[in-house]
Amino acid sequence: MTTWEYSTVPLIEHATKQILDQWGSDGWELVTVVTGPTGGLVAYMKRAKS
């Protein structure tokens, strides 16, 4: 069975692609993006535990 680890990542609107590309190159998969409690964007990421 695969086990997962999760992370939340605040996104800066003018650098969203670069932020997601960096996390993706580290093995993280984007699950969803939501509006955070202060109005900014927050990405929820997951990756398989090794």
Tell me about this structure.
With 50 residues, this protein is α+β, with helices and mostly antiparallel strands. It has one domain: Alpha-Beta Plaits. 20% of the residues lie in helices and 46% in strands. Strands 1-3-2 form a three-stranded antiparallel beta sheet, with helices on one face. This is DUF4177 domain-containing protein.
Quick overview of this protein structure:
With about 50 residues, this protein is an alpha+beta fold. It has one helix spanning about 15-25, and strands at about 5-10, 30-35, 40-50. It has one domain: 2-Layer Sandwich (Alpha-Beta Plaits).
Q: Given the structure, what is the number of helices? A: 1
**Lateral strand order in the biggest sheet:** 1-3-2
Major sheet, described briefly?
3 strands, antiparallel
Would you give the CATH topology?
Alpha-Beta Plaits
So what's the overall shape? flat
What's the β-strand tally? Answer: 3
Poorly predicted runs are none
Give the domain tally: 1
Structural class, by secondary structure, is alpha+beta
Q: Compute the average pLDDT.
A: 96
In whole angstroms, how far apart are the ends? Answer: 12 Å
The CATH class label is Alpha Beta
